[in-house]
Design brief:
This protein has a domain of 156 residues: capsid protein of prophage fold (2-Layer Sandwich). It is 17% helix and 33% strand. Strands 6, 9, 10, 11, 12, 13 and 16 form a seven-stranded mixed sheet that branches. Strands 1-5-15-14-2 form a five-stranded mixed sheet. A two-stranded antiparallel ribbon has the order 3-4.
Length: 339
């Protein structure tokens, strides 16, 4: 995908019978706001070596729960089948973007168009990667009656996730109680799923995740959910700021030991979506580095090349990646209204 910059100003404005009216251009660009990159910091990163197309990542889905009995003295050892290992295969695909700037535009402009184009492409790859990891977390397999997976909570008296019997209504906002419950759901070996508008316990057990400084529990919310928290005295009184652990990009503090990060790349919902009667978001509480991964076939690389036959310079972003969920039971999806 290539964008072309030819000339910053093609028309002229004059109250005289001439097009020679001088114009002064500032040498600095007044930037718009950028969405920040948050999901990459909760994902595990892998890099393929040159010459390889796929990467198989070994996953221990569980520890053995049923062992053969120990042997008595003089008897043969009873062996147990180890069937708790599996693999997730990543196949990175190319994603390339470019901006072409004409030599004329470079000649008549007194701002650095090359730097401006590099900034655009840098922001592009950050946003694309952030949304790819978010989509992988959102698409994680949900738990069901006999299979562990991603669990879900809904604000207010709404139920389930996706197609539900009770839709999210205005007022079904995120609460501190939901944070405590989602935290417990990550830590417990019990796994819950939605059936017929009610939450039921799966026959499958899940991993008992615990937060650590290197792999904390992270709650990713939208600015609308941050507003709900800032209006909640219980959150304001109990939230912690400036902890000794490394601060994540976009982190606004922690609650019950859960780091809270604000992102503009969460799935936004409206009354036109199934299961929603109001505007809202799907937020996530995850175990960092275990919930999702991204494999790089080519880490983002920006190149600047001359293209004489077209009288232009080309700034090219080259990358290859794939994002996937790793441990689905390290994810809790929170379906909440904005107000």
């Amino acid at each position: 995908m290539t964008k072309t910059i030819t000339q910053l100003l093609a028309d002229t404005t004059s109250s005289h019978n001439t097009d020679l009216q001088a114009k002064q251009w500032l040498k600095a660009i007044i930037d718009t706001a950028q969405k920040e990159m948050h999901f990459l910091q909760v994902a595990q990163q892998f890099t393929l070596q040159p010459g390889w197309k796929d990467l198989a990542v070994p996953i221990r889905s569980d520890f053995i729960s049923s062992w053969q009995s120990s042997a008595s003295e003089g008897a043969a050892v009873n062996y147990t089948t180890m069937d708790t290992l599996s693999t997730i295969t990543f196949t990175p695909s190319d994603a390339n973007y470019g901006i072409a700037i004409s030599n004329r535009a470079l000649r008549i402009s007194n701002i650095n168009l090359i730097t401006a184009a590099r900034d655009e492409l840098t922001y592009r790859y950050k946003d694309v990667i952030d949304q790819a990891i978010q989509a992988a977390i959102l698409g994680a397999t949900d738990a069901d009656s006999d299979t562990k997976g991603a669990q879900s909570l809904a604000g207010g008296d709404a139920s389930g996730y996706g197609d539900t019997t009770t839709d999210v209504e205005a007022g079904d906002i995120i609460t501190t109680d939901m944070v405590a419950r989602a935290r417990r759901m990550l830590m417990s070996t019990s796994c819950y799923y939605w059936s017929g508008g009610s939450m039921s316990k799966s026959s499958a057990s899940k991993a008992p995740w615990v937060p650590t400084p290197a792999e904390p529990f992270v709650l990713i919310i939208a600015p609308e959910q941050q507003e709900a928290f800032l209006k909640d005295p219980q959150f304001i009184n109990a939230a912690e700021y400036g902890a000794r652990e490394p601060i994540l990009n976009g982190e606004i503090g922690s609650y019950l030991g859960v780091k809270i990060v604000v992102s503009n790349n969460l799935p936004a919902k409206s009354s036109s979506d199934s299961g929603w009667n109001t505007n809202g978001h799907v937020c996530f509480m995850v175990k960092a580095k275990r919930c999702a991964g991204i494999a790089w076939g080519q880490k983002p690389r920006i190149q600047i090349v001359d293209y004489p036959s077209e009288l232009e310079k080309r700034i090219i972003l080259e990358m290859a990646y794939q994002a996937k969920a790793l441990h689905a039971d390290a994810i809790v999806k929170l379906k909440v209204a904005d107000a």
